[in-house]
Amino acid sequence: MKCLIVDRRPHGVDAAEANVTRWLDKYKHHVKNNINKKIRTKKLADKVNKVTLYLADGLYMPMEEHSIGDIYWVTVANDRWVAGDKIDKPPYDLMQMLAGGGEDQESAHEVTLDDKEFLDTYFEGWSLPNFIKTALTTTEKSYERGGYTTSGSPATLDLQKTYKFSLQRRAALLCQKESEIEELEEELRGCKDKDRIKVIKIKLKELEEYTPPFIDDKDVRYRHKYLIETSIKKAVIVFVLDVAASIDKNRLFLAKKSFQLLFWFLLKVYGNNVELRFVQYTMEAREVDEEEFFKNKRTGGTEIYSGLKLAQDIIKEEQYTQYNKYVFHASDGDTWGEDINNCDVLLNSLLPALQYYIFIGTDLNHFPDNFYKYIEDKSQDSDKIGTVLINNDEDVQINIKELFKDS
User: Less crowded by CB within 10 Å, the N or C end of the chain?
Assistant: First the structure.
């Protein structure tokens, strides 16, 4: 026997978490392809938040079997028709879409990922190198609500809880009062001792006149807060970008995509405790915001030392004492004169303060004094230096992932 189960639940943010997890495990390669498209539309410093993906036709919810021989299919429901209804012929553009030729063909399957699902899916198999795993941590103190106390300041008084305890106390006292009255009345009916009768009547009068106080000191409750100390890992990333005349739009795009991938990976590692700083350089370096970072090209020659020196000044700032520090540097490698020698001296003093320095060679110019050749040789002597060659869009994820393979 076959039975068709129609699933009328809205898909997306309201889908069951367990179902979404199973779905992602099965179709991770489709999800990653869609995420690559999303990268183009985001700014570098954008947090992930929620991402809605529209997946291609051919991806269906799994079949569920409840018993041998009985097959149950789960399918996405319509909200208009049931079995036996006559359906009008769909318009031509809808037929084209269903046939796979329309622009909206991807909208057949929609999945919304939160930031954790997004990062875990995209960066599956990525991890920090072993030498970075001993990261700096800071301790943050905060107060959290937890229970109630019988003492505190007026600002923390919980009126609702106090009134609740007051009701409970008065109800208990009134029940006790009624019980005592019944016992005394029963005793009075069978008592023949005049002195005892007088005592009972006095007690009955006192009990009938007694009213429990509305609020007692024992009823008062204050909201209790306790101190929590949390170890938090924080990071600061200094993006260093060559914006000399030799850097064209394609190189800027490759640098942006590489920087964005590295930033999102560190979001997975450090959560939202990541700060960004942006440094441009030609012959001179300056710090800018993101709006200027990828737009404001300048003319003139290139001196890499100026960019690295400003990056060093930034990470030396007192506010970053307990931060894990990263410098990601993108350039076509063009340099001249004594620049490489100056950079060598500077890097020797800079590297001990860093967790990782990554040089991204974007569509390199093959000059005799290319910086990439120097930094690649230096990386053989230091684990804290990573080098990546990016010649086209496809190289970004493949080559950067080599630096962060599971170890």
Answer: N
- Pair 111, 20: CB distance under 8 Å: yes
Q: Which residues are CB-contacts of 70 (< 8 A; sequence separation ≥ 6)?
A: 1, 2, 3
Residue 237 has which token pair? 């990333």
Contact predicate 259/249, CB 8 Å: no
Annotate 74-104 with b (16+ C-beta within 10 A) or e (fewer): eeeeeeeeeeeeeeeeeeeeeeebeeeeeee
Q: How far apart are CA 188 and CA 186, in angstroms?
A: 5
Q: What's the CA gap between 75 and 94, in Å, rounded?
A: 20
Output the CA torsion 82→86→89→94 (10° steps).
-10
Instruction: Return the number of other C-beta atoms located less than 10 Å from residue 116's C-beta.
Output: 11
Stretch 246-256: mean pLDDT, rounded? 85
Domain ranges of the chain: 2-122, 130-137+234-404, 154-224
pTM for this one? 0.64
Helix/strand/coil for 92: helix
Determine the average pLDDT of the residues in 176-204.
Answer: 88
Give per-residue pLDDT as tens, 199-245: 888 988 888 888 888 988 889 999 998 888 888 889 999 999 998 87
- Kind and range of the H or E element at 72? strand 70-76
Q: Is residue 220 within 8 Å of 148, Cβ to Cβ? A: no
Give the separation between CA 11 and CA 5, rounded to whole angstroms: 16
DSSP 182-206: HHHHHHHHH---HHHHHHHHHHHHH
Going by C-beta distance under 8 Å and a sequence separation of 6 or more, which residues neighbour residue 125? 401, 405, 406
| Second CATH level (architecture) for the domain 130-137+234-404 | 3-Layer(aba) Sandwich (3.40)
Helix (H) or strand (E) holding 101: none
Distance CA(2)–CA(17), nearest Å, equals 28
